Amino acid sequence: MEIARPQLPAEPETAADPIRMHLDEEIADAVFRGADFGAPVREHLSVQGCRFTGCVFAGSALGHSQFSDVVFRNCDFSNADLLGCSFHRVEFSDCKLTGTNLAETTLNHLLFDRCKGEFANFAFSRLRTVRFAGCRMRSAAFGDCRFERVEFAQCELAMAEFFGTRLRGVSFADSDIRGIRVREIDSFELKGMKINVLQAAELARLLGVEIEE
After folding, report:
1. Distance CA 163, CA 187 (A)
2. In angstroms, how far is the first alpha carbon of the chain from the final one?
3. Spatial separation of the C-alpha atoms in residues 5 and 70, rounded to whole Å
4. Quick one: CA dihedral 52, 122, 87, 22, positive or negative?
5. Burial of 38 (0-12, 13-18, 19+ CB in 10 A)
6. Which pTM does this prediction carry?
7. For labeling, which of 17, 103, 186, 207 is most exposed (least CB within 10 Å)?
8. pLDDT tens digits for range 178-203
């Protein structure tokens, strides 16, 4: 699956002032390095063509904001509220997304690379051309999502929730899906999902099917 990469301008030598995250309605073509934004509470912020490296968004509330052509590296979004946000051509690399609320978001051409997303909430979101690579997503919530070209590669998805989300065509063959939560064995979520033999046995036991040795 080919994901469109963020389109970024040349990186300036001087980092932007973190106060812009609190004051500006639109932030474009800026670079932030090592900034602790102090949990801003904003809505409908527009961020475009920006780089964030080693920045702290923990506890922030940035609901219904738009992020386009943005790269986040080694950033901390722990318990941030990103409800209803829109992301287009965005990369999260080595980021902490523990407990992050990404419910009702629109994710288009996104890469999550080696991120820690335990208990992250993606419920009621639309994911289109999204790849999770080497991510720890234990107990993450993907309930009632709409998946279109979504990949999980070598991810930890133990106890993750997929209630009401169609998994047709999604491969979990090289990921840990122990204890994932779906409805019953004939539910539409499971039809067409791709798993390996060992995962099939584990999933059958989870759904109450007895396997004779």
Report:
1. 9
2. 38
3. 9
4. negative
5. middle
6. 0.89
7. 186
8. 888 876 555 666 666 676 766 666 66
